[in-house]
Design goal:
- It is a single chain.
- The chain is mainly beta.
- It has a single domain, classed as Bacteriophage SPP1 head-tail adaptor protein (Thrombin, subunit H, Beta Barrel), CATH 2.40.10.
- It has a six-stranded antiparallel β-barrel.
- A hairpin with a 4-residue loop joins strand 1 and strand 2.
- The longest helix is centred in the N-terminal third of the chain and has 16 residues.
- The chain is globular, with a radius of gyration of 16 Å.
- The termini are far apart.
Length: about 120
């Protein structure tokens, strides 16, 4: 018998596909440090997914989350790995930094990621 978590994990991408907007999750991998330029090389892997994009609610504002930030809801099934705060989100050609991530689980299965981002 399939768990409720797996059932939700399968249902959420369809809901987001019907109601969401295209966003690009940019997974960032830091490479070697160049001692001459003082910069670490960075490589990016972009994944375009459907997501719900919304303003941060006043009740979510705290020491980490600002009123001007955005909240992005992404189906966990649409990503091959969990985003981190080193990764970025591109919305309408504007690059946003991920400042916080909440993972919603059902029966121990990741169903959605809520990404709080700042441009």
């Amino acid at each position: 018998m399939a768990s409720i978590g797996n059932a939700f994990k399968k249902a959420v991408p369809g809901i987001l596909k019907a109601t969401g907007s295209d966003v690009t999750i940019r997974f960032v991998t830091v490479g070697t440090y160049n001692t001459t330029t003082g910069v670490a090389a960075e490589s990016n892997t972009d994944v375009t997914v459907k997501a719900l994009v919304d303003d941060v609610a006043r009740s979510e504002v705290n020491d980490l989350i600002n009123q001007e930030d955005k909240r992005i809801l992404v189906a966990a099934k649409d990503l091959t790995s969990t985003p981190t705060t080193k990764d970025k989100v591109v919305i309408s050609n504007v690059v946003h930094q991920i400042v916080d991530i909440n993972t919603e689980k059902a029966s121990g299965v990741s169903v959605t990621f809520t990404l709080f981002v700042r441009s």
